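Hi R.,

Here's the input for the magnesium ion complex you asked about:
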Amino acid sequence: MFSLPNKVTIIEVGPRDGLQNEKNEVPTEVKLAFIEKLQLAGIEEMELTSFVSPKWVPQMKDANEIVTQVKKLGRQLVLTPNHKGVEIAKQSGAQNFAVFVGVSNSFNKKNINKTTTESMDELKPIVGKLLQEGHFVRACISTAFYCPYEGKVDSSDTLALCKEFVSWGVNELSVADTIGMANPRESYELFDSLKKEFPATLITAHFHDTRKMGIANILASLQAGIDRFDTSAGGLGGCPFAPGATGNVATEDVVNMLHQMGIGTNINLDSLLKAVEVVEPYVSRQIDTGMYKLFKSK
Ligand code: HMG
Ligand code: MG
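And here is the predicted structure with magnesium ion in place:
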């Protein structure tokens, strides 16, 4: 049997990736209750929200209220695409920042209105300053496998973008299958290369579950030595600028698989399902992940 970690870190992205693409407006107090329940379930790292243009992503327009009102527990991250986002986030008291760039130019243009190179040129001094000030910086790498506009992405382009971020000293790379098209072989190969190339950087895998290969991709990444996964409670999520993509792989299904395999997460599955129950009445999508269906049928 291949070697497996004893413990895996789950980075919950439900309040951000999970809700950014939601049709219904989820009230701020519901988001705060959802976040609190997730924290109570044992989530120690979480993407809370994003400081992006409310015209582009109206669902994240309460970012300031979320960051100021949430209980400060563990590593709480906020997404920031540019200088303005970082400045407003700092005023809210944010300490841990996630910048995001697509390997594919077409996706980056649709998502951030800049080419990949323009984004990197803008972010370099911003990230340098954040690190100098002692903030934690995570770099989210979108379209690491496939792009909704350009198709298959060359893994050497993904590695090159990661290398640039690592040369700036970022603390973490979160490498994403944005539209949920990667298969387990591709996941193993890319994450194996990333682990070998960047042994001193935290490397996290972020899978969307469009073709229901998210769990299989997680197993393949575990085999490649990855022990950090972005997941979304209830399997909610999707990027408004990545047509056809569905939610992230569901936290409850990943936690269940890991626990069944004897791998610890520090997360209480029953409490996690109660967190999903808080948000379920407010989202337009039916939540039908495996563990949640079992929980509701009891
Ligand atoms: P733009 O229109 O090119 O920006 O948008 P601009 O600089 O010309 O400014 C336009 C307006 O936006 C101005 O306001 C700015 O002040 C304002 P106005 O004068 O019109 O009133 N503005 C901002 N407001 C709040 N926060 C800011 C900000 N910046 C400018 N940070 C921009 C450029 C980046 C703002 C826009 O494209 C945007 O907001 N994009 C966000 C896209 C997004 O949130 N995507 C989803 C997250 S990424 C993701 O989901 C992928 C991930 O999960 C991994 C994966 O699965 O791949 C992480
Ligand atoms: Mg995503």
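One thing worth noting: The longest strand covers residues 96-102.

Cheers,
M.
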